[in-house]
Amino acid sequence: MLRKKNVVTERHGTIMTIGINRPEARNAVNQKTAAMLLQAFNSFEDDTSLTVAVLHGIGGNFCAGYDLKELAHNPTSIKSEQDVTKGPGPMGPSRIKFSKPVIAAVSGYAVAGGLELSLLADLRVVEQSAVFGVFCRRFGVPLIDGGTVRLPRLIGLSRALDLILTGRPVSAQEAYEFGLANRIVPNGQALQCAMELAKQISIFPQKCMHGDRNSAYYSVFDATSFTEAMQFEFDTGVQVILKESVPGAKKFSLGEGRGGKL
């Protein structure tokens, strides 16, 4: 009998789907699952033929965080490199700076470490009944997979502190109003809609898109000044002008891509 895989990866053309497969635990991540998630995302990063990854949960929930039952019975189960530059976080891929887009297809609960995993993504496609929240607040479990770093950047410090301090549930609609959710879709359609979005992104000239994406992240997390961010933007963008901008301009002059059509 084949053993169930805690993480299921599939390839759809240039798109990789990464599914957390522990529905009996609302897709809570244990040590084994964290290692498998890390391996899956490293494979995505290393494969130059892949354009977008879609992270989702199998069985109705995105992820309920780290498996507290495992932590309760085995306190040493969280084995993470304390130097964040030298090893993975407890949830697996949380310390990776992706070079390509990642989309989270969120259904059910995306709470505690599951919220942190959703924050890895560039975009979050969220089902109507989905719930976000720092539910680990009530159990004294800290956010150590980037939650306190990424969340304030995404939705602002005031709103982030509301979630971090209270641990309250946040609906899909409120998450959309915050800017945490990028799309709200009917229940059961998050993965399908995320795949459609991934296909749209994959059509565009990739070097230019990666450069603009990288510049946006640099300006938010790494630049120490407006001038430094502007310089990085120019230095990054100028590299693609001959490779993609000039060919794109020639297509435009021939009538391609006008009226929003690709």
Q: What is the name of the CATH class of the largest domain?
A: Alpha Beta
Strand element count: 9
Side-by-side strand order of the widest sheet: 1-2-3-4-6-9
Which descriptor suits the 3D outline?
A: globular
Tally of individual domains:
2
Structural class comes to: alpha/beta
Termini Cα gap: 47 Å
CATH fold topology of the largest domain: 2-enoyl-CoA Hydratase, Chain A, domain 1
Organism: Pelodiscus sinensis
Protein name: Carnitinyl-CoA dehydratase-like
Family: Belongs to the enoyl-CoA hydratase/isomerase family.
Pfam family, one: ECH_1
What does this structure look like?
It contains 10 helices and 9 strands. It has helices spanning 31-46, 68-73, 113-119, 147-155, 157-166, 172-178, 190-203, 206-222, 226-238, 241-253; strands at 7-12, 15-20, 52-57, 102-106, 109-111, 123-127, 131-133, 170-171, 183-185. The N and C termini lie far apart (47 Å). The mean pLDDT is 92. It is globular, with a radius of gyration of 19 Å. The longest helix is centred in the last third of the chain and has 17 residues, at 206-222. It is 43% helix and 15% strand. The protein has a 6-stranded mixed sheet with strand order 1-2-3-4-6-9, with helices on both faces. The chain has 2 domains: 7-203, Alpha-Beta Complex (2-enoyl-CoA Hydratase, Chain A, domain 1); 206-260. GO terms for molecular function: catalytic activity. Belongs to the enoyl-CoA hydratase/isomerase family.
